[in-house]
Amino acid sequence: MTASTIEDEDTQELRSFLNSWLIPNDTRTPTETLPALVEDPSAWHGAFAKVPLPDGRQVAGLLVLRDDLRADVAEGSSRRLDGWLEKCPLRVRVVDGELEFSGDGSPQACLLGLATRTVLEGRWKRLRSCPDCKWVFYDQSRNNSRTWCSMYAGSTGRACGSIAKVRRARGRQSA
Ligand SMILES: [Zn+2]
After folding, report:
1. How many Å apart are CA 19 and CA 32, to the nearest integer?
2. What is the pLDDT of residue 170?
3. Which spans in 7-159 are helix H?
4. Is residue 27 domain-resident?
5. Rounded mean pLDDT of the chain?
6. Between residues 157 and 141, which one has the greater pLDDT?
7. Under a CB-based contact definition with an 8 Å cutoff, are residues 44 and 34 in contact?
8. Directed axis angle between helix 59-75 and helix 107-120, to 10°?
9. pLDDT of residue 21 exceeding 70
10. Residue 1 CA to ligand 1 centre (angstroms)
11. Which of 18, 27, 48, 83 has the most CB atoms around its CB within 10 Å?
12. What is the pLDDT of residues 69-99, one digit of tens each?
């Protein structure tokens, strides 16, 4: 399925959620951004086109969902996602010939819908967690074999590939 080498908006939105925990390039300190996003509706709607703004009581559950899905991605698994769907089933509808996943209208149901659609479109297996900075990226390589977030530092990556290359070279020199 070649279409899945291209990330779509749903998967991008899911990834924004997954990367609301991150290790920024400059500080390299694990940073939690989700609660602050919830406090700032304009920032939330800037980050998420589809996921409704959570209320304060929903945040703790979303943190657990996010960390579970991050763990699945890091392991190359989907069993925690499956566990969530068992606990919080979605309704499947067909709208204009397309499958639509809906739940109770909560942010959690919306995110589970985005994750389910990502699986359906063959994109879940292309989500990767960088072994160094833990950034969740979308692997667009033809053979789905990218390891590092990026070779170059920028808004979408942290140059962990280059850093690893330098480390390997230094290791060879000292050996
Ligand atoms: Zn990285």
Report:
1. 9
2. 83
3. 9-18, 34-39, 41-47, 59-75, 79-87, 107-120
4. yes
5. 91
6. 141
7. no
8. 20
9. yes
10. 26
11. 18
12. 999 999 999 999 999 999 999 999 999 999 9
Is 155 contained in some domain? no
- How many A from CA of 155 to the centre of ligand 1? 12
**Separation of 58 CA from ligand 1 center, angstroms?**
29
Q: What is the pLDDT of residues 109-131, one digit of tens each?
A: 999 999 999 999 999 999 999 99
Helices (H), 48-106: 59-75, 79-87
In angstroms, what is the span from residue 129 Cα to ligand 1's centroid? 8
β-strands 136-138, 21-22 pairing: unpaired
Q: Please indicate, yes or no, whether the overall pTM of this predicted structure exceeds 0.70.
A: yes
Quote the ligand 1 centre to 44 CA distance (angstroms): 24
* pLDDT recorded at residue 3: 62
Domain harbouring 77, CATH code: 1.10.3300.10
The answer to the question of residue 88 being in a domain is yes
Q: Which two tokens stand for residue 100?
A: 């639509």
Instruction: Give the number of domains in the chain.
Output: 1
Domain contains 163: no
Position 66 pLDDT exceeds 60: yes
- The residue count for the chain: 175
Instruction: Say which range, 13-27, 43-57, 144-158, has the weakest mean pLDDT.
Output: 144-158
Domain span at 15: 2-140
Distance 151 CA to ligand 1 centre (A): 9
